[in-house]
Amino acid sequence: MRKKCTSCAVNREINCFGVDSGSPDGCVCQCKLCRAHYAMFSRCQDKSTHVIKRIKVCVEWQDRMTFIRWAESHGWQPGLHLDRIDNSGDYSPENCRFVTCCDNIRNGDRAKLAREQVILIRLLFASKHVSRTYLANLFKVSIAQINNVISKRSWSNV
Ligand SMILES: [Zn+2]
Predict the structure, then answer these.
(1) Could you tell me the distance, in angstroms and rounded to a whole number, from the CA of residue 69 to the centre of ligand 1?
(2) What order do you get walking across the sheet with 2-4 strand by strand?
(3) Does the pTM exceed 0.70?
(4) Domain range list for the chain
(5) d(CA 41, ligand 1 centre) in Å
(6) Least confident span in 9-23, 33-47, 124-138, 144-158
(7) Crossing angle of helices 132-139/143-150, nearest 10°?
(8) Do residues 7 and 19 touch, judged by C-beta distance below 8 A?
(9) Which of 65, 74, 109, 142 has the most CB atoms less than 10 A away?
(10) Which residues contact 24 (CB under 8 A, 6 or more apart)?
(11) 106 CA to centre of ligand 1 in angstroms
């Protein structure tokens, strides 16, 4: 449904998120971009891993319209997700890109590795030329998964 977004006042595809305690108007009908902006902040506040790693939203993006302008000029489309390139880095223009849901899967620790990849990860790590973060980005899995592979907590039979 296309309608005026209650946050940025632009006519866009919107979702109604029902009653939101953070909204003075009660009902929140936001476009997906405003929602992405809101979600960025709530992830930094709610998700324990974000808080522990002190991941934050860069100063520039504290302003929603700056974020929206960036998103629109960087290939955002409905259905794409904001992905941090360096998982331990902040939300900033340098560290973010838009990906389809399946590229983003490493954030959920659900990506599966194949046997050959496990062998390769261990070889690369043993070479001492690459970091765990580099491997996580390369294989699109979490650093926790890389740690498990290296320590043989997972794939112990390989
Ligand atoms: Zn909006």
Answers:
(1) 11
(2) 2-4, 11-19, 27-31
(3) no
(4) 32-101, 115-150
(5) 15
(6) 9-23
(7) 110
(8) no
(9) 142
(10) none
(11) 28
pLDDT digits (tens, 9 = 90+) for 117-147: 889 999 999 988 889 988 988 888 888 888 9
CA of 82 to the centre of ligand 1 (A): 16
Task: Say which residue, 62 or 81, is predicted with more confidence.
Answer: 62
Distance 67 CA to ligand 1 centre (A): 11
The alpha carbon of 56 and the centre of ligand 1 are apart by a number of angstroms equal to 21
Which pLDDT score, from 0 to 100, does residue 102 have? Answer: 52
Six-digit token string for 25: 């108007």
Contact 73, 106 (CB under 8 A): no
Contact partners, residue 56, CB within 8 Å, separation at least 6: 44, 90, 91
- Contacts with 30 (C-beta within 8 Å, 6 or more apart), sequence order: 5, 6, 7, 14, 15, 17, 38
Contact 140, 103 (CB under 8 A): yes
